[in-house]
Amino acid sequence: MLVRYIATRLVIGVAQLVGLVIAVFFLIRLLPADPVSRLVGLNPSAEAYAQAERQLGLDRPILTQLLHYLGLAPEEGPGLLQGSLGISWVTGSPIVEEIGRHLPVTIELITLSFLIAFVLAVPIGMLGALKPGGKADRGVFIYSLFAGSQPEFWWGLLFVYLFFFTLGVAPPPLGSLSPLTSPPPEITGMITVDALLAGRPDTFVEALHHLMLPVATLVFILSGPIIKMVRQNMVRALRSDFVLYAHCAGLPRWQVARYALRAAMAPSITLIGILYGFMLGGAVLVESVFSLSGIGQYSVRAVLSFDYPAIQGVVLIITGISLLIYLALDLIHAVIDPRVAY
Amino acid sequence: MPRLVPGLVPALAASALALTVALPAAAQSLLFLAEDVPAGLNYDGPAAAIPTSQTGMVNLMEPLFGYASAGENEDGIIVPNFDEFEGRLVESWDYDPDTLTWTLNLRQGVMGCNGAEFTADDVVYTFARAKSVSGAAPIGWFLSNVASIDGFTPDVFGDEAARELGDEVVALDDYTVQIRQSEPNALFLPVMTIFGLHIFDAEEMNANATDDDPWAHDYTNNVNVPSFGPYCLESWTKNEEIVFTANPDYYLGAPAIERVVMRRVPQSSNRVVVLQTGQAQLAQALTPREYDSLRDAAGVAVGGVTGNENLFVHMNFDVPPFDNPLVRQAVAHAMPYDQIIANGYFGQAERWPGVVPSGYPGFHLSDNQYDQDPDRAAELLAEAGYPNGEGLDAYGDAFALTYVAEKESTLGPIVNAIQTALREVGFPVTLNPIPQTQYGDRQLVQRDLPFAVNDQEKPIGVDAGYAIQLFFVSPEAGGLNNMVNYRNEDVDATWALARIEPDTDTRNAQVAEIQDQLMADVAWLPVVEYRTQWAFADDLNGMRWHPDNSVRFYDLSFE
Questions:
Q1: Whole-number Å distance between alpha carbons of B345 and B339
Q2: Coil, strand or helix: which one is A67?
Q3: CB contact (8 A) between residue B142 and residue A42
Q4: Which pLDDT value is given to residue B24?
Q5: Which of B165, B154, B173 is nearest to B125 (CA)?
Q6: What is the residue extent of each domain of chain B?
Q7: What are B194-210's pLDDT values in tens digits?
Q8: Residue A41: what pLDDT?
């Protein structure tokens, strides 16, 4: 039954992706700018314009362009069906390679951030729920207001100023490694993982050190809503009939709390999943502040330079990952909530 | 995993110590913080218009000609002497005006990064590649066309046979090349200094060509650009970092700085703080405020030059009421020039008294100048039929002052000052920030921007005539980027004469006449020439300005 459910979801997901790809293909062509003009900046003659237009394939009918992009006109070159997302109009590199280089940077950053945020937020949220109005609860309320009062890039810049420039305990915001360090051989694209795989603990530690501030910035921002969600759901669970029955049955307090937490986790995990999908592209400001070449930075650059193949590729990949995350969330729900069955 | 744990503790301690203590600059290495790293190294490729890509090219490649030095300016920045060319890969040269032929005697014993020796074949290859117009943006062809090299005509785009290099560029022997022009044209030598005609290492390029890509565009877009420059490519991760190492066989002597790491740091404020800690030795593309804040910082120097960067107001002749010369002059007299210099550029700018960079050969100081004079602006506006601006509201969005949104931190204070000053006279100015690419499209292709502020036009050909042909000659007469739709038959006719005038004095007089006309018509409203600046460690010497505004690491050394 479960396998059939997953298969059905994957088929629907593929159909959604195809629809999205076609919609994005046409929508970006409605943007109020012509990507050819960026190419011909130094030589804006009519002949050079026509040449650049030909090079980008924009001189062909739009349906021909779509068929080429989808891979249904292989005589014109590989397309989606052949595993190609096209060539960047800015760099001339294959989009698959570029996304393959940028995406792991963001995945490493936000995965580490969510893990730490989760580990911190769950007990803090529980504490607030077990003693509403207590010191912990009030502290969480003030923190939530504080963390949400400024955008993440502002906190990032403040952390750089404080921890790097003033206190000197953090490395400079120059990316994943010091400019003096050679990166480990690329296997996953995630520096920490690749450093471990290459048996280079010093590089692993250095990468963690460089991730310290960007991760702290994201944890600072992300923990607020997770704590709130855990707290509210815990409060609701603690007031439910099954918890009242557990208390009446004389179960120890920690055991009751464990039951309540399990009931409270489902919506919290949903929130984390949604936030994770959002942060794949939404970590762009933190990436910018800390000079991390993540997928968010890549997306912004693609949009600003009207690099159609890159925009289409990023949308496709991020949407695909988001669909997989939502599928995983549904499966996790089934594990932690016995009422859910597929 | 467990076997790694014992190593982690000492590694953590060592790493923390190493990273929290400011790293002193190694004597022969440089960390250069920039807004980006090269997106490509192919000057006929899609990334050629991006300034940081040009920085990569000029440090890896070598030109035929360069400019001699004119000494240091008041900031200690070395500036070029545009009246004196020096041979780079060319040792000596000769021009025969009867046959319009340049004979170039090439330098011998010049070695590239891969051990190949520079010969005439490399020059012929470079021009053959340019004429193939096989890249996404054929800059090499464009510059050859501007220099009137025979056969480099627009025919190449329609006729495949016209893309073959003929006898216009020929190797007489291993170290002698002849290049023939189709007409006299003073732009030949200036164009040869530009990065878009730097010389490729033909042997290495051919080794990396494929049947589908015979001119190695993929290789130069993504891997390397083989040439005979002072630096070789060590590693390159797009969007992140590029590392250059000195070419020990460079014909002018090995570079003083052996290794240069150019790192992308998108936030200019972070470039500032890292430079201040001494961990980086050079930073560029800061805001005027940030440069100003670093002037008194310990261990940091700020230097600049009034080169070819400027800011002007663009008024479209095809959009009323900017077709009325009185309205244009009224805007010119309402402009808060001094306020822009003081508050927009923190004093690091000067009034621009023309429409050509004032340091370029052929620049002419016209008598037609427009000082800020609100009373005179009001008079002109009334004379144009709009007393106190009455009736200007009928022109809708014509007074929406457009600028590039990505430059908000620099242009924001400037457009606000302009808006305030013009509103006081009666112009209903509003602000309209739009993305860079949209701005470029409307400027270059649509040519429909009614009213805009522009700070990004730098004619890379160092010559007043080049700037005139680029911006002010009508498209019908060969103009290339006439973004304000300016049309003046006298200007077109005079330029047609000046373009092929062999006598320098006569040509200068013709070009001066054109500049007088442009200023009288307020073809552009020139506002300021702002300084091209860099911030660097105070023990870094040799900073030199080049007209493409890219730093050459070869110029630099530490005390």
A1: 9
A2: helix
A3: yes
A4: 40
A5: B165
A6: 40-227, 310-530
A7: 999 999 999 999 999 99
A8: 67
Q: Is B346 left (phi over 0), alpha (psi -120 to 50) or beta?
A: left
Any A CB within 8 A of B140 CB: no
Q: Which residue has the tokens 């159909």?
A: A15
**Region B84-94 average pLDDT:** 97
Show residues of chain B in contact with A201, CB under 8 Å: 4, 7-8, 11
B27 touches chain A (CB under 8 A): no
> Would the pLDDT of A76 be above 90?
no
Q: State the fold for domain B40-227.
A: Dipeptide-binding Protein; domain 1 (3.90.76)
Kindly state whether A209 is in contact with chain B, defined as any CB-CB distance less than 8 angstroms.
Answer: yes
Length of chain A: 342
ipTM above 0.90, yes or no: no
Chain B hits for A307, CB-CB cut-off 8 Å, are none
CA distance A326 to A230: 19
pTM of the model: 0.87
Q: How far apart are CA A87 and CA A79, in angstroms?
A: 10
Chain A partners of B42 at a C-beta cutoff of 8 Å? 92
Least confident stretch, A318-327, B144-153, B535-544:
A318-327
Domains of chain A: 2-82 (no CATH), 96-151+216-336 (1.10.3720.10)
- Asked: is B310-530 a CATH 3.20.20.80 domain? The reply is no
Give the integer Cα–Cα distance in Å for B79 and B412: 30
Least confident of A143-152, A272-281, B115-124: A143-152
Please say if the pLDDT value at position B475 is more than 80: yes
What is the bridge-based pairing of β-strands B300-305 and B532-537?
antiparallel
In chain B, which among 45-74 make CB contacts under 8 A with chain A? 45-50
Q: Are A317 and A106 within 8 A, CB to CB?
A: no
The radius of gyration of chain A's CA atoms, rounded to the nearest angstrom, is 24
Nearest CA in chain A to B483: A44
For chain B, positions 270-329, list CB contacts with chain A under 8 A.
270, 273-274, 276-277, 279-280
* Minimal CA separation from A308 to chain B, in Å: 13
